[in-house]
Every structure is written in C-alpha cells, then in structure tokens.
Amino acid sequence: FASVLLIALALGVQSLFNLRAMRDETQVIYERELLGISHLKEANVNLIYIGRSLRRMILAPDVESRVRARQEIAKARETLASELVAARRAVLRKENIARLDNFEVNLARYDMRVAQAINMVEKSPYASGEAAAYVSSADFTADADKADALLSEIARNKETGARESAERAMTVYR
Fold this sequence. Notes:
Elements (H helix, E strand, L loop, with lengths): L1 H58 L3 H28 L3 H30 L5 H8 L1 H34 L3
C-alpha cells in the first residue's frame, strides 16, 4: 500500500513540476514575444499615422485643420518613440536588434523628410502642390517603406519565437 502511495506522490510531484514549467514558458511567451509584437505593431501603426497626418496637413483647407494635423503628427511621433522603447526591451535576438537599429536609422531620415515637408507647408500654406509632390516622391517614401518593412519583419520573427515557445510548452504534456 505504501508503494502505491509513493507512486501517486511521485506522479503528483512530477505533474506539479510540469505545470510550473508550462506556466513559466507561457509567461515567457507573453512577456518576451507577445508584448513585443504588440509594441512593434503599435509603433508601425504610428509610423503610418505620421504619414497620414502629414498628408492631411498638406491638404488642409484652413489653419485650424493644419494645426490639428500638425498636433497629430507630434502625438504619433511621441507614441512611436514610447512604443519603440517598450519594444526594444522585448527584442532579444541579435538579428532583430540589428533590424531595430536599422529601423531607427530609417526613421531618423524619415523624420527629417517629414520636417522638410512641414516646412514647405508652413512657408506656403495654400500652395500645397510642391509639398504634395515631395511627399509623393520615391525619395520621401523610401525610408518610411523600409522602416515599415523592418518593423514587420521583426514582428514576424517574434511571432515565430512565440510559436516556438508555445511548442516547447506543449512538449511538457507529450
């Protein structure tokens, strides 16, 4: 009878160990991978908001709309910066860190181009043709497109990492 109890106790302890291992792996998936993906995607959304708000600013029919669009650009840039800080804490793989560094280089160039477009609009508020042509040019969009692609690639890699972590967690029950 004692040996049966010992076997049951051993199985119970092993089950508790497996549950703890699965809980720990699930926590890793959440903290390292899923939160990182969330921050990266939010940063990417705000990159898009910058471009959309800039176009609104260029096409604004009045001063109020232009000021509001300018504020939206500033808010999107601020949110983008805070999301990048949070995302950087969750990016651990060397290749993704390099991509994030490359993203920030492209973002800095894009920021300079956005500032140049804003200056064009502010110099000639109702002659938006020059600013619109500039914002539509391949030179202007190249850095934003590259930055967008880099964030998307990092997010895809993190999704793969989350899937791998989930598979590791599932091996506990196999």
